[in-house]
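Subject: design request, 693 residues
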């Protein structure tokens, strides 16, 4: 298989670039390292493009491996021919490979196998080559009557099973049905036992398979699994059988009748169930891939939200009966203090709560409040507004998405970080830290628990975890990690590192063993190869070597120290590139870093929306224009936090005056947008928004 050219054609990337990326991957280089520090070899490919090459390379290599396994199995069973081998090697689809191999697989005994064991192959051959009519066939079939076959009619019936299986094994016949599935087949869904009408949109659902949206497929699958929905696929049966019949030409009327019987049997008993299962698996896989893609697109900007620096933050984790948990962290996220207050029902100790929080704010110089958005959030927000009004110095607050906070609080990592604190206080600390540095805090939670994307609990768990881990890895390495306040969990996502090495780095730093970037080489188990992959992504703000706090790789320090003597705003790149024997992309990156050492790329992203007064759905009216933050994007639209306690929905039809297929064409998660209110349903607590005009 010519993998390089196949990838070049599929991904529309030059073959030499792909060849170089494959070489680097095979050497053990990470995607982040390749995209950031090997731009000359890749032709400046982005991390997304390198990741696509890696993903498709693995897929094609799996196909290659399966080709080898099938060829070996066929050789061992003496079934391999030159023609069959060539057919296998030219097939780049796992589905078609299995179709080719299917007739030779060891499997449970079929009706055709039993007919052959009964010695009916000569009868089968006679029926489709010499039989003139039914009488002729009956006469010949009498020779096969015995204790297992009590009539010539039964002998003919069993012999036809051989032909039915032959039709089922015919790749062209299967592809006729498969093609119909992709082009014309429909999925029919009806209500089964859905008393709560949870799946009402699918009680009478009829749609072409090719037009299914990912969320519809996943919803139908879930409804079927729960016994609420009944699902079947509808193919163009008569049309398909006619096309299959055309594959078998005969001028004999009787043989044509027998062939029709076999086609009907093969189609209904063998081909249709098999292709139906294949189609269901296929559309599920497509839906999963699409949903994971949506999840990934939502996750990266969510992780890369702009941090709030140099602020002492108070985190509030609201609750009713158990109270609101409070934690204060300093500007670096270090835990300072805690409390529990009961400002809302059923306790309503508002005066006491105001006093406790006022004292904490004054004691620690709190600048900002991070309020969780889950249970009792709205009532606690009303209380926070009263608190802010009562203070001499005005501070603001921001609503923070609580998704996954309870998972972190009860995790082994949460216990390691705060062994002496209650799990609920850990949740309040997480609220505060999420506001200060979203990425550093969110990496402590499995991505699927972060609360973005759609139908994540219905997806292939291994595939979801694998893909989202890559998004986290790419995000962490895009920003870089400061050694001063990084948890080992955050460090573990750095190029080349794993949890074991990350823990050792964290411990060595705390013990004062890591001052310079080059000190990483002293970490037990961190060799030259790992140092090369990881060093450029780790920042050492307190190092006497200024380059240690930039993304300039140690292998380029000599060049950087030469460049620093030039006027960086007036430099002849081509001339310096040639003089210092360094590629232009690397040279440009070095200059950018020298201009802004220690720069955080997230500072270019929109600021966090903070506020100092509450709004509710009652304050809204149709036509209002209001700013909000995109919280989640799905196939059908985007949910936007407009600060009223209920996320508004911008349906895809209200995103643009021109037709768009996907909300991601217009929006990115965490975007700050100005929207117009076009619908308010207070009873159902729904708000419709529009980006038009």
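Subject: RE: design request

Done. Sequence follows.
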């Amino acid at each position: 298989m010519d993998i390089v050219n196949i990838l070049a054609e599929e991904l529309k990337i030059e073959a030499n670039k792909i060849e170089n990326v494959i070489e680097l991957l095979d050497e053990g280089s990470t995607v982040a390292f390749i995209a950031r520090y090997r731009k000359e070899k890749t032709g400046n490919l982005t991390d997304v493009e390198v990741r696509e090459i890696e993903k498709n390379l693995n897929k094609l290599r799996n196909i290659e491996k399966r080709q080898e396994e099938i060829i070996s199995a066929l050789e061992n069973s003496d079934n391999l021919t030159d023609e069959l081998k060539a057919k296998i090697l030219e097939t780049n689809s796992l589905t078609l490979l299995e179709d080719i191999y299917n007739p030779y697989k060891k499997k449970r005994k079929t009706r055709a196998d039993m007919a052959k064991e009964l010695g009916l192959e000569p009868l089968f051959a006679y029926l489709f080559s010499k039989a003139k009519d039914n009488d002729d066939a009956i006469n010949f079939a009498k020779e096969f009557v015995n204790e297992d076959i009590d009539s010539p009619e039964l002998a003919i019936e069993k012999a036809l099973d051989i032909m039915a299986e032959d039709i089922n094994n015919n790749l062209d016949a299967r592809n006729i049905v498969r093609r119909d599935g992709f082009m014309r087949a429909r999925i029919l869904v009806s209500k089964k036992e859905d008393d709560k009408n949870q799946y009402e949109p699918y009680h009478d659902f009829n749609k072409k398979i090719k037009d299914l949206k990912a969320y519809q497929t996943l919803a139908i699958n879930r409804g079927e699994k729960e016994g609420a929905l009944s699902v079947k696929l509808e193919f163009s049966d008569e049309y398909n059988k006619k096309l299959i019949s055309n594959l078998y030409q005969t001028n004999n009327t009787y043989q044509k009748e027998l062939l029709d019987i076999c086609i009907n049997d093969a189609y209904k008993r063998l081909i249709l169930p098999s292709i139906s299962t294949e189609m269901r698996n296929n559309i599920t896989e497509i839906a999963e891939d699409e949903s994971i893609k949506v999840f990934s697109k939502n996750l990266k900007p969510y992780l890369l939200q702009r941090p709030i620096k140099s602020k002492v933050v108070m985190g509030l984790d609201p609750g009713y009966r158990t109270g609101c948990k409070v934690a204060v962290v300093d500007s670096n996220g270090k835990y300072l203090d805690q409390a529990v207050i009961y400002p809302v029902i059923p306790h309503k100790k508002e005066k006491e709560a105001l006093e406790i929080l006022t004292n904490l704010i004054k004691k620690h110089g709190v600048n900002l409040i991070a309020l969780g958005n889950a249970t009792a959030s709205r009532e606690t927000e009303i209380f926070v507004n009263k608190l802010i009004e009562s203070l001499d110095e005005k501070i603001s607050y921001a609503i923070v998405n609580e998704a996954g906070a309870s998972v972190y609080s009860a995790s082994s990592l949460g216990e390691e970080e705060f062994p002496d604190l209650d799990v609920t206080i850990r949740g309040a600390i997480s609220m505060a830290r999420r506001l200060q540095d979203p990425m550093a805090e969110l990496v402590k939670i499995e991505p699927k628990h972060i609360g973005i994307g759609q139908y994540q609990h219905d997806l292939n768990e291994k595939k979801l975890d694998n893909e989202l881990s890559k998004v986290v890895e790419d995000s962490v390495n895009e920003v870089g990690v400061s050694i001063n306040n990084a948890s080992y969990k955050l460090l573990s996502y750095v190029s080349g590192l794993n949890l074991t090495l990350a823990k050792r780095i964290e411990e060595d730093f705390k013990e004062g063993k890591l001052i310079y970037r080059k000190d990483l080489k002293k970490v037990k188990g961190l060799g030259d190869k790992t140092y090369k992959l990881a060093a450029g992504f780790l920042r050492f703000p307190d190092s006497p070597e200024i380059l240690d706090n930039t993304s300039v790789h140690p292998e380029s320090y000599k060049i950087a120290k030469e460049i620093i003597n030039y006027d960086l705003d007036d430099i002849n790149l081509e001339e310096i590139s040639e003089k210092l024997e360094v590629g232009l992309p690397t040279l440009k990156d070095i200059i950018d870093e020298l201009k802004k050492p220690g720069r955080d790329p997230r500072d270019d992203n929109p600021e966090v929306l903070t506020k100092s007064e509450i709004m509710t759905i009652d304050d809204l009216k149709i036509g209002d224009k209001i700013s909000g933050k995109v919280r989640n994007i799905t196939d059908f639209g985007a949910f936007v936090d407009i600060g009223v306690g209920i996320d508004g929905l911008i349906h895809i039809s209200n995103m643009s005056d021109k037709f768009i297929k996907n909300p991601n064409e217009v929006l990115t998660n965490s975007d700050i947008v100005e929207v117009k209110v076009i619908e308010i349903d207070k009873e159902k607590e729904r708000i419709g928004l529009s980006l038009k005009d």
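The first strand starts at residue 186 and ends at 191.
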